[in-house]
Amino acid sequence: MILDAFALTDRVAVITGASQGIGEAIAVAMAEAGARVVLSSRTRGRLEEVADRIAGFGGRSLIVEADVTDRSGHERIVKETLSQWGRIDILVNNAGINRRNLPEDFLEEDWDVVVDTNLKGPFFLTQRVGREMIRQQYGKIVHIASLASITGLPNIPAYTAAKGGIGALTYQLAIQWAKHNINVNSICPGYILTALTTGIHESERGEYIRNRVAMGRWGAPKDIAGTAVFLASAASDYLTGQLIVVDGGWMAGG
Ligand SMILES: NC(=O)c1ccc[n+]([C@@H]2O[C@H](COP(=O)([O-])OP(=O)(O)OC[C@H]3O[C@@H](n4cnc5c(N)ncnc54)[C@H](OP(=O)(O)O)[C@@H]3O)[C@@H](O)[C@H]2O)c1
């Protein structure tokens, strides 16, 4: 039955940046779909709140506090997940940050922290988890990329380089790991109201964005969750190497 193909029953899903925003929404949705979810970020307190939310509907979760820029954190995510549940079926590379400035004024330290968090960290976590997926001959990798992966947006040169890199890596990993039964895709969210975007949302540009989006509203984190569940499920088994835009119609024009 087709709806069964969308279920994640007993799958093990690692979600980085699961303490809030889009990552929290994806973690909750995957747990609702039946997955056992590994909630990772740097802040245990918030992760515990998300774990409580999941336990509230009978879902199963494991907290692994880790910084995505830290290779020892990657190792801990893999070791603790394997020791609890013995496999990793799904990886959602969601943790991300941003720094805003004109390209002509952009600071090297801002470049480094954004590229380390949004590109280098996710690549090496993917490499580590990918080794387990190759051993299993099964895996679903979902990167949370951005509209900045595919179009120019103001004042975010490092974020654009990192998210462009994640978009390009989606193709590279997809062709390389398809033979291991590993799907690699990205979601490019449009403007989603989270802690990351509150500043813009409340500025003059926030109103411009609302008017420019065909659907006439900013997205909510749960607007991304359905596509993430789909890309992690058997319903998307023949889909790999794609950047899926979920943006309320921003890229459609306007
Ligand atoms: N909001 C949007 O409009 C939008 C649009 C396109 C793409 N995105 C992407 O969607 C993803 C989630 O963003 P969001 O809007 O949900 O932002 P958010 O609410 O600020 O959440 C970011 C998450 O990343 C985690 N994180 C940040 N740095 C980390 C690090 N070094 N190690 C581990 N975890 C780290 C944070 O947790 P801790 O602080 O607890 O570590 C938090 O859980 C990001 O990759 C972002 O670029 C967002």
Radius of gyration: 17 Å
Poorly predicted ranges (pLDDT <50, ≥5 residues)? none
What class would the helix/strand composition place it in? alpha/beta
CATH level 1 name: Alpha Beta
Classify the helix fraction into a percent range.
40-55%
- Tell me, rounded to a whole number, the average pLDDT: 98
Task: Give the helices and strands, then pairings.
Blueprint: E1 12-16, H1 21-32, E2 36-41, H2 44-56, E3 60-65, H3 71-85, E4 90-93, H4 108-136, E5 139-144, H5 157-177, E6 182-189, H6 198-201, H7 204-212, H8 222-232, E7 243-246
Parallel strand pairs: 1-2, 1-4, 2-3, 4-5, 5-6, 6-7
Helix pairs in contact: 1-8, 3-4, 4-5
Residues 16-17, 19-23, 41-43, 46, 67-69, 94-97, 117, 144, 146, 189, 191-192, 194-197 line the site of NADP nicotinamide-adenine-dinucleotide phosphate (NAP).
Description:
The model has no long low-confidence stretch (mean pLDDT 98). The chain has a single domain, classed as Rossmann fold (3-Layer(aba) Sandwich), CATH 3.40.50.720. 45% of the residues lie in helices and 15% in strands. It is α/β, with parallel strands linked by helices and 254 residues long. It has helices at 21-32, 44-56, 71-85, 108-136, 157-177, 198-201, 204-212, 222-232, and strands at residues 12-16, 36-41, 60-65, 90-93, 139-144, 182-189, 243-246. Strands 3-2-1-4-5-6-7 form a seven-stranded parallel β-sheet, sandwiched between helices. It is built from eight helices and seven strands; from the N terminus they run βαβαβαβαβαβαααβ. α1 packs across α8 (222-232). The protein is globular and about 50 Å long. Bound molecules: NADP nicotinamide-adenine-dinucleotide phosphate. NADP nicotinamide-adenine-dinucleotide phosphate is lined by residues 16-17, 19-23, 41-43, 46, 67-69, 94-97, 117, 144, 146, 189, 191-192, 194-197.
